[in-house]
């Protein structure tokens, strides 16, 4: 099913360009911009923004410029900004790492740029964001580097086309770059520190081009409004909306409070957030009658640590299987050849214990079935080739598996004006589910709202 058939399209605030209606700048990131713009000292909206890509993003010019601009314009937002770019990883590789450091992070907005991927990998990442998260996307075309204006033409054309297909906010940075060069009598060499990477002037130019895209249009509809639904507990107390309350619930500070009772909600989506008011009570969380920890899809793995000789991860992807659990993992690599192409390894989980051995020559499934590794995801030989020195004969690679959610809700203390918003479950199938919160009766639980995330693309 095409994306445009599964989400509400932007219908307001359009302008005519050559007789064709076009969305205004920033129209496709309006849900994020609305959260920023409507934050107040009394209600600081949580907003997560992730910068993702390879070395051009890792240089951090874009992140610094955009974050500084947003914090200045929207000082009351509870803003979290991270840069998880990995230098040297084009789209064919980044599509692997995204499974661990992009989708589980589940931001409100992904600011994304990467080279390569003309064989479907770039589109695969965009599609993955739309299938696995409700994040909005801002991306841009490649700048003109020292190889000249003809380099990357086809790649930029593809990006413009895919941005339209997946309803991304697109900045045609390449066109604006060319305008700047012509107007200011600059060459690509004046803006790059080497063939492609930016120098200080090029970095400033990138920031100056990207920051105007973060515009807020008051009253504008977003293509992604329907993907994130917020249900008020105060409404539920009055019998409005889909949430059903049973027990001794009472109104409190715009929300509800109870010591004993049950909350029940049938929803469609893959993530549930609970916003709470200050209280001390706890509640048992059930999804489809089971604790979230019983659902394999609600687990993720962190990106493994780097090899001893390079900054990139030793493994691009750790696959999960069986019934995962929250634990630490250690892969001990040994008998490593000088070129890094041959090696053996042993795997141990902090709770699972010894979980099998393997080599680089074949797919590996751990004894418990919890860990699955593919030869193409080991970065050993790449590190040797790039750094031109051998790996140690033996070293450890570590990562964690963790639950994206909780079996028991416990309130947190937050800063004044900030929301205690916690994810009850994430990563479950994007389908119909039933949420139940069962109060333990030990102390009052005060709740404000439930947010359901339904990725727009099946």
Give structural notes.
- This protein has 458 residues and is of the alpha+beta class.
- The protein folds into three domains: 3-213, SGNH hydrolase (Rossmann fold, 3-Layer(aba) Sandwich), CATH 3.40.50.1110; 225-291 and 407-453, Jelly Rolls (Sandwich); 298-403, no CATH class.
- Helix content is 22%, strand content 31%.
- It has eleven helices and 24 strands.
- It has helices spanning 30-37, 55-58, 61-73, 91-101, 121-132, 153-165, 173-184, 188-191, 200-210, 233-237, 380-387; strands spanning 15-17, 20-22, 46-53, 78-83, 109-113, 136-140, 169-171, 228-232, 244-247, 250-252, 255-258, 261-276, 283-287, 299-301, 319-320, 327-334, 344-349, 353-359, 364-365, 371-373, 394-403, 408-409, 420-439, 445-453.
- The strands form five sheets. Strands 8, 9, 10, 11, 12, 13, 22, 23 and 24 form a nine-stranded antiparallel sheet that branches. It has a five-stranded parallel sheet with strand order 4-3-5-6-7, with helices on both faces. It has a five-stranded antiparallel sheet with strand order 14-21-16-17-18, with no helix packed on it.
- α3 (61-73) packs across α9 and α4 (91-101) runs parallel beside α5 (121-132).
- The protein is globular.
């Amino acid at each position: 099913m095409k994306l445009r058939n599964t989400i509400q399209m932007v219908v307001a605030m359009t302008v005519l360009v050559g007789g064709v209606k076009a969305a205004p700048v920033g129209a496709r990131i309006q849900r994020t911009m609305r959260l920023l713009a409507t934050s107040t000292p009394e209600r600081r909206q949580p907003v997560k923004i992730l910068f993702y890509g390879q070395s051009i993003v890792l240089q951090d010019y874009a992140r610094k410029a955009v974050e500084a601009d947003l914090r200045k314009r929207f000082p009351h937002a509870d803003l979290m900004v991270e840069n998880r770019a990995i230098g040297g990883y084009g789209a064919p590789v980044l599509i692997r790492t995204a499974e661990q450091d992009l989708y589980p992070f589940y931001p409100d907005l992904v600011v994304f740029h990467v080279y390569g991927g003309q064989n479907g990998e770039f589109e695969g990442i965009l599609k993955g964001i739309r299938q696995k998260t409700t994040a909005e996307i801002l991306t841009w075309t490649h700048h003109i580097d020292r190889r000249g204006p003809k380099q990357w033409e086809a790649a930029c054309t593809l990006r413009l086309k895919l941005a339209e297909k997946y309803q991304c906010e697109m900045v045609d940075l390449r066109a604006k770059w060319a305008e700047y060069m012509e107007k200011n009598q600059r060459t690509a060499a004046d803006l790059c520190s080497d063939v492609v990477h930016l120098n200080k002037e090029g970095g400033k130019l990138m920031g100056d081009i990207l920051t105007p895209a973060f515009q807020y249009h008051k009253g504008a509809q977003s293509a992604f409004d329907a993907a994130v639904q917020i249900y008020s507990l105060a409404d539920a107390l009055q019998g409005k909306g889909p949430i059903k309350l049973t027990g001794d619930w009472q109104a409190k500070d715009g929300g509800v409070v109870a010591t004993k009772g049950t909350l029940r909600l049938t929803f469609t989506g893959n993530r549930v957030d609970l916003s709470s008011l200050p209280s001390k009570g706890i509640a048992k969380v059930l999804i489809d009658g089971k604790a979230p920890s019983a659902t394999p899809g609600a687990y993720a793995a962190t990106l493994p640590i780097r090899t001893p000789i390079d900054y990139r991860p030793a493994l691009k992807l750790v696959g999960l299987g069986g019934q995962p659990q929250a634990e630490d993992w250690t892969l001990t690599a040994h008998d490593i050849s000088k070129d890094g192409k041959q090696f053996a390894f042993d795997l141990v989980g902090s709770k699972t214990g010894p979980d099998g051995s393997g080599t680089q020559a074949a797919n590996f499934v751990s004894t418990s079935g919890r860990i699955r590794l593919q030869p193409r995801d080991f970065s050993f030989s790449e590190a040797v080739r790039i750094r031109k020195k051998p790996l140690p004969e033996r070293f450890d690679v570590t990562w964690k598996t963790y639950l994206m959610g909780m079996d028991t809700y416990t309130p947190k203390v937050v800063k004044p004006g900030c929301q205690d918003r916690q994810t009850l479950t994430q990563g479950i199938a994007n389908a119909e589910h039933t949420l139940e919160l069962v109060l333990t009766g030990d102390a009052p639980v005060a709740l404000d709202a439930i947010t359901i995330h339904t990725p727009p693309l099946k």
